Amino acid sequence: MNSTIPTNPDVCLTRQETADALKAAGFPMTAATLTTKASRGGGPTYARWGKRTLYRWGDTLAWAENRLIAPRRPRAA
After folding, report:
1. 35-45 pLDDT per residue, tens
2. Residues 6+ apart with CB under 8 A from 8
3. 39 in a domain, yes or no?
4. Sorting pLDDT into bands at 50, 70 and 90, what band is 2?
5. Domain total for the chain?
6. Residue 35 is part of which domain span?
7. Dihedral sign, CA of 60, 65, 68, 69?
8. Residue 1 has pLDDT above 60, yes or no
9. Quick check: is 77 in a domain?
């Protein structure tokens, strides 16, 4: 994949394509981290197709956005 953000939320991406798309969307993520989260829990939902792991882009983006914490203001000095 060329590190672009998918426009179709229903597109299925491989683990590497998902990591690349998340990086392009501003969420630093590696394929290795997605692998770890798939085995330990806490990651985005995924499906298996044969030996391939596929992530639906809309679900993955929602997962990443839900991990954001509320914006904070700096303390006055």
Report:
1. 999 999 999 99
2. 57
3. yes
4. low
5. 1
6. 12-66
7. negative
8. no
9. no
Phi-psi region of 63 (alpha: psi -120 to 50; beta: other; left: phi over 0): alpha
Q: Which of helix, strand or coil describes residue 4?
A: coil
Residue 61 resides in a domain: yes
Give the full edge-to-edge strand order of the sheet including 12-14. Answer: 12-14, 52-56, 47-49
Q: Counting beta carbons within 10 angstroms of the beta carbon of residue 54, is it exposed (0 to 12), middle (13 to 18) or buried (19 or more)?
A: middle
pLDDT tens digits, 15-68 = 999 999 999 999 999 999 999 999 999 999 999 999 999 999 999 999 999 998
In whole angstroms, give the CA distance from residue 6 to residue 21: 7
> Concatenated DSSP letters for 8-73?
-TT-EEEHHHHHHHHHHTT----HHHHHHHHHHS-S---EEETTEEEEEHHHHHHHHHHTPPPP-P
Residue 59 domain-assigned (yes or no): yes
